Each structure stands twice: as C-alpha cells, then as structure tokens.
Amino acid sequence: MLVLDHPVRGSFCGALADAVQDGARAAGHGIDLLDLARADFECLFQPEDRAHFLGGPVPPEVAAMHRRVEAADGLVLVYPIYWWTFPARLRGWIDRVLTAGWAYAMDAEGNRPLLADRPVALVASAGAGRQTIADFGYGAAMRRLIDEGTFGYCGLATIHPLLVTDVHESAEARAAGLAAARALPQRMFA
Predict the structure, then answer these.
(1) DSSP H or E stretch at residue 16
(2) Cα(100)–Cα(140) distance, rounded to whole angstroms?
C-alpha cells in the first residue's frame, strides 16, 4: 500500500510516488495507492475515534483502512517534511488508522505491538540539505519518533528510509531520489 500526502499531485512527492509505483510494477508487485489529498477519508481525529480508543466500535472508514493495510505486503509513505515531521494529513491518517486494539494493545499485559512485521518505506522529501538535517539531529529524531515510536511500537520494525534532500536546489538530488524510489520496492522485498 502506498500512502501519498502532498496537496499537489504534480509535485516532486507525486513524482516519487510514481517512481515507487513504476519500481513495484517492474518487480511484479501491485500497488494500492491512497492519495490523501484526493481521498474520501477524513484524516482529522474524530469523536468516534476517541470513543473507539475508550472501547467503542471501530469507525467503519477506519475498519476499511485496516483491511487495506492488512491486505498489503508492505507500506510505503511518501511525504514532504513539514516542520521536521509528517504533514498534518498523514499524521492524522496514522492517528486514525494505527488504532489501539488493532495496531497495538494497552491492557493488563502492558503495551505491546499487534501488527505482523512487514516492510515499511518512509519516502520523504526535504528542501533542507543533508548537513542541515545532520546539524539539527533530524535523522536521529526521525528514527526515534517515527521508526521506533510509531511503526516499531505497532510491530512494524523493518523500516526502509529514503530521505531526498536539497529538492529545491539540486536537479541531481531530485534525479537520484527518483532513481532510489524506483529501486525501493526491489530492496523492500529482497
């Protein structure tokens, strides 16, 4: 399953998503694309999500997303880095979909993951350069907060990061990023 979050489909993130899809098809994999900017899925946490967290039923649209994720051999998220993290829509999708009782448990046995591990690729674009990202400690923060704190917490520990930097300044960086995105599905399922 490929989850794209960018408001402009013709953006560099859109091109990264297309490259991942091309690579998946070339490797014999299908792709279930969810373009959050154009999807009929509310990404903001709703009162019924809170009710579900407190033991109520899973909202039907969230249950449908659960089925899509369950049917996928892997998960690819493509997004720009906004304020050193996910854009709001993708963060909301994660908040609504990676739910207690389905992705993780909080019960008498403690907190524990419930999802079977499968590869997760985090394909992010950044206007900042590699040195800026290193100077601010973003790489380490991303591994801790996103890789471990979000996906690892749910049992998804096989993370394939692809961070494309300097996207506003360097045609070479964009070309290299697109090539790496095309090769990603082969690497994920090797």
Answers:
(1) helix 12-26
(2) 26
Q: 167: how many CB neighbours lie within 10 A of its CB?
A: 22
Q: Which residue range is the domain that position 100 belongs to? A: 2-188
**CA-derived radius of gyration, the chain:** 17
User: Nearest to residue 156, comparing CAs of 164, 165, 146?
Assistant: 146
Burial of 20 (0-12, 13-18, 19+ CB in 10 A): buried
CATH number at residue 41: 3.40.50.360
Total count of domains within the chain: 1
C-alpha span between 140 and 55 (Å, rounded): 34
**Alpha-carbon distance 88 to 83, whole Å?**
10
pTM of the model: 0.95
Each residue's pLDDT tens digit, 120-159: 999 999 999 999 999 999 888 988 999 999 999 999 999 9
